[in-house]
């Protein structure tokens, strides 16, 4: 990744998502207290961020699209702060040295909306017909909270959220309490594992809860009556999917898992830490929908617990989750992973060479289908080369070694070589580095 300057004169932390994130500090903890009025889409918040300086700080640049009204730093009011261009720039009362911590309290309010960035779909806080969805990948986290919006900055969370009493609230963390007071209800959540800001979500709707028994508690949250045709084959099999993935990838990395199903139709489902979001249109026994239920669940291991340090390595999320679809197909009596590999290799081979290497697809192509499928094919090539025992040992130990941390492709290659006892770069590098599609091993 190109080295970019931080808060004291920077352009952002990752060239794929310019203007977002800062390398000069990390946020260690968010304590968010939010009040939301559904009828007016009015969000009022107070955020307390515990930050650690990486470089010497004289200013702190937070990503925040809403307007800040008051800022304090380590308990002292700050008079010099400015909200502009989706950022809150705070002049610190005194410099903060590398390694030191500083606490920033921000009061802010406004009407949150999805954020636009050239080349990407709008992302962030979005009103539904009756409720709210937050889909922040890759740039939308600052639509509703102050943050350091880069995938390599990971924070724990406490959230206190108050809204209309007859609405259900979910967050990418564990529920702590829910208390009604008049026409309002206050929900409290906690995420004890550090996650990037884009993986923190809030979901609000007139939802009912269905509990499922799996390796950890599983909940399906959605409109009453969502258990219609297709539920049994898709969301009804989540406990089996999780058991399959626990065997393949190791223990599930969070205390529980929640699938939110909105009444609105959604174009694509979305993962966040310990929670995935789907439109009602994905409640189906059609494989194209069932595979996405498996795909989002697999992201809890690959993408959420183990997160790429930079967006150019997004195949470490999507390739693994796509391969998990093939594993679930194999385990549930459908096509084998080899058959899916042959199918998708044939489709890719019919087209032109990919426009960029898998390890650097460019921002314009990072969510292209070829990234997902070629990433999965890379893993299948590894599986064929080393055999099932070593392959799944690689996956399980990879998750165990890097859980709740950020990773790179180079680290994965080194890890696989260590587990296999030999250099696997000659096998994997053609899949990773060349736009030309290698032959599929059998």
What do you see in this structure?
There is one protein chain. It is built from eight helices and 22 strands. It is an alpha+beta fold and 442 residues long. The protein has three domains: 1-205, tricorn interacting facor f3 domain (Immunoglobulin-like); 207-300, Orthogonal Bundle (Neutral Protease, domain 2), CATH 1.10.390.10; 307-433, Neutral Protease Domain 2 (Neutral Protease, domain 2). The strands form five sheets. Strands 5-4-8-2-1-11-14-13 form an eight-stranded mixed beta sheet, with no helix packed on it. Strands 16-17-18-20-19 form a five-stranded mixed beta sheet, covered by helices on one side. The two termini are 35 Å apart. Residues 1-10 have low confidence and may be disordered.
Short description, anyone?
It is built from eight helices and 22 strands.
Secondary structure topology:
Elements: E1 25-37, E2 42-53, E3 57-63, E4 67-73, E5 76-77, E6 81-84, E7 87-96, E8 101-110, E9 124-128, E10 131-135, E11 154-164, E12 168-171, E13 174-181, E14 184-196, E15 202-205, E16 208-212, E17 218-222, H1 238-249, E18 257-262, E19 270-272, E20 275-279, H2 287-298, E21 306-308, H3 315-331, H4 337-350, H5 369-386, H6 388-402, E22 405-407, H7 409-420, H8 425-433
Parallel strand pairs: 1-11, 17-18, 18-20, 21-22
Antiparallel strand pairs: 1-2, 2-8, 3-7, 4-5, 4-8, 6-7, 9-10, 10-15, 11-14, 12-15, 13-14, 16-17, 19-20
